[in-house]
Amino acid sequence: MAIREILTVPDPRLKLRSQPVETVDDELRALMDDMLETMYAAPGIGLAAIQIGVPKQVIVMDLAREGEEKQPRYFVNPEILWASEETQPYEEGCLSVPEFYDEVERPARVKLRYLNYHGETVEADAERLFAVCIQHEMDHLNGVLFIDHLSRLKREQAIKKVKKAKAA
Ligand code: K2U
Ligand code: ZN
Predict the structure, then answer these.
(1) pTM surpassing 0.90?
(2) For ligand 1, atom 12, which residue shows the shortest CA distance?
């Protein structure tokens, strides 16, 4: 396993649309292992493959709280089958937009279909933080960042802040 570099704005690769995975094999599992190690080290609770420069439809997540046993989850070629009309606001952050947080409104509940770590098809219902995180990560697979849901002014402020921090 290896900790990989996390891309940050304004890296153009973060705007790429990620490609579907053909086969969940040992090579893909090695990528997911690296993604999980990278996410824990950040630290974060979710990570999309494009954030380490790999344009594949792969997400890892662990919503376990501090002190709880780790609960890693793997999502390959995830699809949203249904989303509630009801929405919920959440103060989001992103490992690719460090030190910037703002509120984003998203559907409160979603139904997902995806392939798991072993390539098996799974359906799941997500709500609360799981719903927020999976939609945030699936945005990454479409080249969309949470700041793209904000005003142009806030988006430009976020990018300027990250650029300044990188130059320091
Ligand atoms: O995509 C990422 O950069 C991972 C995010 C996932 C996330 C974003 C917004 C809301 C929930 C999850 C990082 O984990 S951001 C760090 C973080 C940590 C705990 C709670 C919220 C955000
Ligand atoms: Zn993110």
Answers:
(1) yes
(2) 133
